[in-house]
Amino acid sequence: MKQSKTRRKRGVLLTSVGLKRLQTAIRAVEIVQNNGARFTLHELSDRVQVCTKTLSRLWSLNASVDQRTLKLCFNTFDLELSTEDYIIERDPDFDESIEALLPSLDKKQIYSLLSITEGSFTKEQHENLEYCCSYPDGPVSLDSPLYIERPPLEKLVYQEITQPGCVIRIHAPREMGKSSLVLRLLAFAQQQEYHTIKLDCDQMDTSCLSNLDQFFRCFCWRVATELGIDPQLDTYWDKEIGSKLSCSFYLKNYLLRQINCPIVLVLERVGRFFEYPHIAQEFFPLLRSWHEEARQDTNWQKLRLVVVYSTEVYVSLDINRSPFNIGLPVRLSEFTQQQVEELANRHGLKWNSGKEARQLMSLVGGHPALIRIGLYHLTCQSMTLEKLVKEAMTNGGIYRSHLWRHWEKLQENPSLARVYAELVTAKQSISLNPMDTSKLDSLGLIRFEGDRILPRCELYRAYFVKQLSNIM
Q1: Least packed by Cβ within 10 Å: which of 5, 37, 45, 265?
Q2: Weakly modelled stretches of the chain, pLDDT under 70
Q3: What's residue 312's pLDDT?
Q4: CATH hierarchy code of domain 12-88
Q5: How much is the pLDDT for 314?
Q6: What is the C-alpha separation between 19 and 46, in angstroms, rounded?
Q7: For residue 91, what pLDDT is reported?
Q8: Res 116: pLDDT
Q9: Alpha carbons 358 and 60: distance in angstroms, whole number
Q10: Is the peptide bond before 262 cis (omega within 30 degrees of 0)?
Q11: pTM greater than 0.90
Q12: 235: Cβ–Cβ under 8 A, 6 or more apart, which residues?
């Protein structure tokens, strides 16, 4: 009689959330107890009393360890292990088609990619509707099963971020998924043991944007602080050569020189700088110069830039000095019907005939945020699809906050409101001024169908026909 094979006890995998918590705690100890210097793998092994091989498995996020080991690591750095820090091991299937698509990645990187792109959408999470019953506001968290890929964008950005001195430009209107993609790109970078920094330009004080020197000092201080390095700005700042050169020398000769691994620097909402032309005209060409220097300088090659924006360039930039025509351009598209059906199924809805998806998309197209808001109300608010469609265009409908925000933007720009009023009431295609087209596109109010410019969806057309009727 053949003896049955003993089932191996499953281990646990550290999640990206858990890794971030652990990295932050380790960094705090390094600053206090190790003069800010990074612990080597052997030093960490001595502290935790776990072999280096086990720690390497833990950092990879794709190899399991036993839960007691993970708890020991957390306790060493005064952290309490929580359920969000790990998931039960699943058997990864290595997709050789991805290896063929991304020849520049080694196997470790491809496994890391798979752990993100395939995501943590497991049967257990599907049955747990807490993800679905949280109102869809902001980026989709890393551990949520509700993130929908838009191939091949995810795999392309993972590949590009491994290239020395790269620049990735992510451009799309608000609520199209830029921040959700950035979260996954940063998680992938962390799995490669890169340093990651995310700067939200909206968080910068107006005082820092009123003066060029103050802006560059603020920028350098923030980067150094995020890296856990004593800024020492006064030591490296030279008024004789100006703030731009001081900024470049500081990054190259002070920060990058002492960092041994790549640094992924994400600049979110850089459109804010367009409101300060004196900043934009100096800072943006500098970004391009760093990218060009990386072709021959190993220090600059460590810097990987990700620029995220929803606003087109409204300042005068020489085409040869602009960073908006270099690197990998990424434009996020709307969901397809198949993707809408997949997202509906992840909400627990059985949309397999295509009828329901087409009905919702006839109202909001494939707009990610509007689709998710609709599915939330269908799943958690006991609303029928028929009622959703019927009430959507009213001021009391489920999309009221979204529509009011667009309405406020148009009220702030009466000339643009008149242009949009003409567009939503036109019986056939009309021509628009390129600047107006760019502004409406940045707001997410239009879509392109060949040479035609149309309202983004029926919801917008019907709502704004009514709202803008007094200026037609």
Answers
A1: 5
A2: 1-10, 60-63, 89-133, 312-317, 472
A3: 63
A4: 1.10.260.40
A5: 57
A6: 19
A7: 41
A8: 56
A9: 41
A10: no
A11: no
A12: none
Report whether CATH 3.30.420 matches the domain 400-471: no
